[in-house]
Structure formats: C-alpha cells, structure tokens
Amino acid sequence: MAGAEVTVTIPCAHRGEIRNIQVRGQRVGAFVIFHQSQIEDALGGRVYPGWSVTHEQTGLAAITDVDTKRAALYAAKELQLVAVDWTFSDPLVVKQWSRDVMVQVRRIRDRAKGLQ
C-alpha cells in the first residue's frame, strides 16, 4: 500500500491568502505523507511541526501534526479502511460524510497522535 515518492500541490493559508505549494512525500493509497517542515520552507515564518497525512486528489490535510513518520503511515493505512470512496476530487464531499465516518477519522487521528 505504501508507494513511491511523489510531488503534490497543496493549498495553504498564508497571510490571509490561500497559496498552493508543492511538497514531496510518500504515496499511501489515496494519501501522501510528508514532513510539514516543507510548508515552512515554502512559506517561511510559522513553524509546522510533525508529519501530515494529505488526501492526494484534493491536496487537503486529513491529519496534521503527527509526531513520527511511523504514526503518519499508520494513519494513512487506517484511513484507507474507512468505508468511503477516496477517489473524490471535490473537498466538499467530506461535508456529506456520516457522523460515524467522522468519528472513525477522529479516532484514527487520536491514535496516530499517540504513537511515537
């Protein structure tokens, strides 16, 4: 499930504007995991600690600020098991998810943040 290194474009809020930046990371199913220091390098200023699990199709973070790559890999693999179609490209699809799905995503996030 973990795959090759890829470059993706993600949206980031910076000084009141959304800027698209490129980051390199490892593809894990529908997600890319990368160290968030790449955001800081691209935008400067704010420190972005930890790892991000980002939905590749939309460029939006599913889980942020995970302490280790191992925890980010865990989260990406677990998210793949949630019963949703991860091939969506419209970020507003998330607003249509059931409460149960959102609870599952939060549990995965909380477990990942607890891993070292």
Q: Could you characterize what this model shows?
A:
This protein has 116 residues and is α+β, with helices and mostly antiparallel strands. Helix content is 30%, strand content 35%. It has helices at 37-43, 69-80, 99-114; strands at 2-14, 17-28, 31-35, 51-55, 61-66. The chain has a 5-stranded antiparallel beta sheet with strand order 1-2-3-4-5. A hairpin with a 2-residue loop joins strand 2 (17-28) and strand 3. Helix 2 (69-80) runs antiparallel to helix 3 (99-114). The longest helix has 16 residues, at 99-114. The mean pLDDT is 89.
Structural key phrases:
116 residues; alpha+beta; 5-stranded antiparallel beta sheet; 3 helices; globular
Classify the beta-strand content into a percent band: 35-45%
Overall 3D shape: globular
Series of secondary-structure elements, N-terminal to C-terminal: EEEHEEHH
Distance between the termini: 21 Å
* Structure classification: alpha+beta
| Assembly state | single chain
Uncertain runs:
none
User: How would a crystallographer describe the biggest sheet?
Assistant: 5 strands, antiparallel
Instruction: Assign a percent range to the helix content.
Output: 25-40%
Report strand order across the widest sheet.
Answer: 1-2-3-4-5
Radius of gyration, Cα only, in angstroms? 14 Å
User: On the 0-100 scale, what is the average pLDDT?
Assistant: 89
Tally of strands: 5
What's the helix count? 3
